């Protein structure tokens, strides 16, 4: 026997209460289920013991109590929350600094002469919280040999250095300067390891490590016994850090080589400016920074990163604007660069102007102008040496714009948008000391016209590589990179007094609107300068028309009515300079085929017709046989007003694109090539309403109306001929002859009518009597149609308007002897009591009254007519044998009666017995002989069965 099989000690399921069993060698281990909050915790060898150590624990500060069961003794341990320490978690570990505080922690020198790779030589763990991106947390060592844990640019860094080697680790997945708590850990042996515990890390841990190399001497360094926490009193040590700043924020749970640092037990010579606990004000919660500026929490205060052009502690102030070329007086500002400002250029400013051309900024040296920024046709142009770039965005609209031009490594961008045209790579630019920056113009003698003249408008918050150009030497700072001299530059953004020249005519009122003006005209004048008369104010049009002003005149708009033989012809009185790029027409008709508008000249023509009740538009081209067309696909011959609009999308002479809109619906692009409508301005006859019955409303071509009312004005279409046209929209008097019969009401629907019929009539003329029986209203009968009514001839047994009511035949029933009546259809049925029968319950039935067994205590029931009789045994009496006779009282002694009666009965039995013996002897003597005489005397034997019950007698009623 080799004894190689391990017996499964878990086979007997020794672990209880859901515990997991793990087999061992001649043993097993039970892993008890994790405790549920507020539930039972199990322990012991088999997880069968209810642990009670936490029933009366002393764990403080929300610590978790863990019950313990050892050597049959119940106890507990406390798992502390972050920031607390001790057996009962009552000792706080949290402390804070405000930029100048620190703790100097001294460790005892270990007896180990060499740090093992398996056992940490130096270990630091801490939880921290801050909102500042640059500062160190711990410095362990001296000036030459040190281990640093710090924040730099919001990222966690670990730095190790000694005479043999150095190493830097950075955890760049997450910034840790957002004011939340983070835990960091640094370990130093043959490796340098840095760990950040964060929910965003993989499995909650971000960790980096680096081997220090063979040159690294792992001997214990005495300098590492001194640890500076939060601050360094010596600048030489601070220079070894990247952050160069002491810690501001909160620390807790600080472990140095597994030794916890308890702040409340530090002495005065160990610490400086230390505060127990962590009190943090959320400075940015109240949004103190205005105008969309960003609030930066600096732990002990806040700072506003103001959106341009705002400034001040809370961004309520605004940088001063400066006005150039005010009242057309030449102005400029001259700056001298005093120091080198970088190898690339970034120029930004707020600009506001209405002048489309002018020099904004120019940088030059002693030999040439190497950068010029100017406006041309309202667009920013950038000239770098001999190359000019033009950006398409329009800036000369009087609004304030931020321009940001960057030139880096030969690439030019405006407001972050790269110049996209193909150019040769520009050379790198660099503004050097003694170079000149000119803003808004050039000094006298300069060729300003090549740049479009002086810049006219306002500039604000002008910056070159982050340095602001201050146009007043009074506001210049000592560290500014520029020295200013300005000429005719005005503080604040000021407008010219453009109303000084009285531009508004005819008593119009002028109002300045920043380098521009508006005129409030009197009633009879209009236009930008109140020079155009308001013709419609004089009411020149007929009463039925509407007057509409247009530049240089007016038109009288009125609807017109046409009959089939009517038409109207217009010709143009419009200058050929006008670009006719649209046609619009309002119409109302019931015609299914008619001409709304047509015109032609040579190979060009336009046709808007109604065909089969649908709108058809044709626009052939002089260069194309096919042209283009549009079919509405919807019926428009319904007597309602419709509007069709045709518009040119582009104005190219070769192939303009056209769109059609019907009833202000979606614009449909017409596919194909066509010419323009310019031929309509060349004395072309334009015919309206040919073979058309209906109304036309506003008709316009290129924005010029074709007026139906008589008038004469230049720059419009003139009515050349009309036939039977009537002003106003009037349909035929379709209701005049009273087409609706039987009192129907006629409704005029424009050249059509609709009859609203009275009840009971239908049809176009209300000539048809509605069949009121069509819906089969009679449920049980035949329907006869009447005028707006019907009559039901009901079947037998039914009544009501619709023969839906069953007549109650029980109202006069003949049911006797208490019978109830059940109604039927034209009949009824009598429901009789149990003792009666017949159609009317007239016959009586004798029922078996003994059927329910009314007799008690074994009594026999005898049925009678409508009654019964109980025959009781000797012990009971009563109608139903319900009375017991044993309880009756006797008036004499029972013993005196019982003795004589018993003797009498005994004597009677003796006499009967003697008689039976004598009879038997006598019978034996006569056996074996036949005696006819005896048979005659005795008679033949006949047995008769007893009749138990006589059948009841039948009675005939």
UniProtKB/TrEMBL annotation:
Cite the InterPro entries for this sequence.
ConA-like_dom_sf, EGF, EGF-like_Ca-bd_dom, EGF-like_CS, EGF-type_Asp/Asn_hydroxyl_site, EGF_Ca-bd_CS, Laminin_G
Any idea where the Laminin G domain is? 92-278, 322-493, 557-729
- SMART domains per UniProt: EGF, EGF_CA, LamG
Chief subcellular location: cytoplasm
Q: Which residues form the EGF-like domain?
A: 6-48, 50-90, 280-316, 495-531, 731-767, 769-804, 806-842, 846-882
Disulphides = 80-89, 306-315, 521-530, 757-766, 773-783, 794-803, 832-841, 872-881
Question: Which cellular components does GO assign to this protein?
Answer: cytoplasm; extracellular region
Annotated Gene3D superfamilies: 2.60.120.200, Laminin
Show the GO MF annotations.
calcium ion binding; Notch binding
What keyword terms does UniProt attach to this protein? Calcium, Cytoplasm, Developmental protein, Differentiation, Disulfide bond, EGF-like domain, Glycoprotein, Membrane, Repeat, Secreted, Signal, Transmembrane, Transmembrane helix
A biological process term (GO) from this entry: Notch signaling pathway
Q: Which residues cross the membrane?
A: 890-918
Which locations, inside or outside the cell, does it occupy? Cytoplasm; Secreted
Protein name, entry field: Crumbs cell polarity complex component 2
């Amino acid at each position: 026997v080799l004894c190689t099989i391990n017996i499964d000690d878990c086979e007997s399921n020794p672990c209880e209460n859901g515990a997991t069993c793990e087999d061992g060698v001649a043993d097993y281990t039970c892993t008890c289920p994790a405790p549920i909050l507020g539930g039972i915790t199990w322990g012991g060898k088999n997880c069968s013991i209810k642990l009670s150590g936490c029933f009366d624990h002393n764990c403080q500060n929300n610590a978790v109590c863990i019950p313990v069961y050892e050597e049959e003794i119940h106890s507990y341990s406390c798992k502390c929350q972050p920031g607390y320490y001790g057996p009962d978690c009552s000792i706080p570990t949290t402390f804070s600094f405000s930029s100048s505080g620190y703790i100097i922690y001294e460790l005892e020198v270990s007896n180990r002469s060499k740090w093992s790779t398996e056992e940490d030589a130096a270990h630091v763990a801490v939880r921290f919280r801050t909102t500042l991106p640059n500062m160190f947390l711990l410095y362990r060592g001296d000036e030459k040999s040190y281990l640093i844990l710090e924040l730099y640019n919001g990222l966690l860094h670990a730095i190790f250095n000694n005479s043999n080697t150095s190493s830097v680790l950075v955890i760049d997945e997450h910034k840790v300067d957002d004011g939340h708590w983070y835990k960091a850990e640094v370990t130093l042996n043959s490796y340098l390891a840095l760990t950040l515990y964060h929910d965003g890390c993989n499995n909650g841990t971000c960790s980096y490590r680096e081997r220090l190399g063979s040159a690294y001497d792992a001997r214990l360094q005495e300098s590492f016994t001194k640890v500076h926490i939060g601050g360094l009193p010596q600048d030489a040590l601070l220079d070894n850090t990247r952050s160069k700043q002491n810690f501001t924020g909160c620390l807790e749970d600080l472990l140095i080589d597994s030794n916890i640092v308890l702040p409340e037990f530090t002495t005065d010579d160990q610490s400086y400016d230390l505060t127990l606990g962590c009190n943090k004000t959320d400075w940015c919660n109240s949004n103190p920074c205005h105008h969309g500026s960003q609030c930066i929490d600096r732990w002990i205060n806040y700072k506003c990163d103001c959106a341009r052009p705002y400034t001040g502690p809370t961004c309520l102030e605004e940088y001063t604007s400066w006005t150039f070329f005010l009242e057309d007086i030449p102005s400029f500002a001259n700056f001298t660069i005093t120091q080198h400002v970088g190898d690339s250029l970034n120029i930004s400013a707020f600009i506001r102007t209405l002048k489309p051309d002018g020099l904004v900024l120019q940088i030059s040296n002693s030999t040439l102008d190497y950068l010029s920024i100017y406006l041309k046709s309202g667009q920013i142009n950038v000239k770098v040496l001999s190359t000019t770039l033009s950006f398409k965005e329009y800036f000369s609209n009087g609004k304030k714009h931020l321009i940001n031009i960057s030139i880096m490594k030969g690439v030019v961008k405006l407001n972050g948008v790269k110049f996209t045209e193909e150019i040769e790579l520009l050379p790198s630019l660099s503004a050097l000391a003694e170079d000149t920056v000119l803003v808004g113009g050039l000094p006298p003698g300069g060729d300003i016209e090549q740049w479009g003249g002086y810049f006219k408008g306002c500039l604000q918050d002008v910056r070159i590589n982050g340095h602001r150009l201050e146009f007043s030497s009074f506001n210049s700072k000592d560290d500014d990179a520029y020295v200013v001299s300005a000429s005719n530059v005005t503080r604040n953004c000021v407008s010219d007094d453009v109303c000084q020249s009285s531009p508004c005519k005819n008593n119009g009122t002028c109002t300045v609107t920043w380098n521009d003006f508006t005129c409030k005209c009197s009633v009879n004048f209009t236009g930008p300068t109140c020079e155009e008369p308001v013709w419609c104010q004089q009411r020149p049009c007929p009463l039925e028309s509407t007057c509409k002003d247009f530049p240089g005149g007016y038109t009288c708009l009125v609807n017109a009515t046409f009959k089939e033989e009517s038409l109207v012809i217009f010709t143009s009185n419009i200058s050929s300079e006008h670009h006719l790029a649209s046609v619009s027409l309002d119409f109302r008709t019931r015609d299914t085929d008619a001409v709304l508008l047509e015109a032609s000249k040579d190979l060009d023509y336009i046709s808007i017709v109604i065909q089969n009740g649908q709108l058809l538009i044709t626009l052939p081209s002089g260069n194309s046989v096919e042209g283009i067309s549009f079919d509405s696909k919807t019926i428009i011959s319904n007597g309602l007003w419709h509007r069709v609009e045709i518009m040119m999308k582009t104005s190219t002479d070769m192939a303009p694109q056209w769109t059609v809109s019907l009833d202000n619906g979606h614009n449909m692009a017409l596919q194909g090539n066509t010419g323009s409508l310019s031929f309509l301005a060349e004395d072309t006859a334009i015919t309206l309403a040919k073979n058309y019955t209906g109304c036309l409303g506003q008709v316009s071509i290129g924005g010029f109306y074709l007026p139906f009312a008589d008038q004469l004005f230049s720059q419009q279409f003139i009515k050349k001929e009309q036939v039977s046209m009537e002003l106003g929209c009037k349909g035929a008097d379709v209701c005049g002859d009273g087409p609706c019969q039987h009192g129907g009401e006629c409704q005029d629907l424009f050249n059509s009518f609709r009859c609203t019929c009275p009840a009971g009539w239908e049809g176009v003329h209300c000539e048809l009597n509605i069949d009121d029986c069509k819906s089969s209203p009679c449920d049980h009968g035949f329907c006869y149609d009447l005028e707006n009514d019907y009559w039901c001839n009901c079947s037998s047994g039914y009544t009501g308007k619709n023969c839906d009511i069953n007549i109650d035949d029980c109202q006069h029933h003949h049911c006797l002897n208490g019978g109830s009546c059940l109604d039927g259809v034209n009949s009824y049925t009598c429901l009789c009591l149990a003792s009666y029968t017949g159609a009317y319950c007239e016959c009586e039935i004798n029922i078996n009254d003994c059927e329910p067994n009314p007799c008690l205590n074994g009594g026999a029931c005898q049925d009678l007519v409508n009654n019964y009789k109980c025959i009781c045994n000797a012990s009971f009496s009563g109608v139903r044998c319900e009375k017991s006779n044993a309880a009756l009282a006797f008036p004499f002694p029972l013993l005196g009666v019982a003795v004589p009666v018993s003797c009498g009965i005994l004597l009677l039995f003796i006499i009967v017995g003697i008689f039976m013996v004598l009879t038997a002897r006598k019978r034996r003597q006569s056996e074996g002989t036949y005696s006819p005489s005896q048979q005659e005397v005795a008679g033949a034997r006949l047995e008769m069965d007893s009749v138990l019950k006589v059948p009841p007698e039948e009675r005939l009623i």
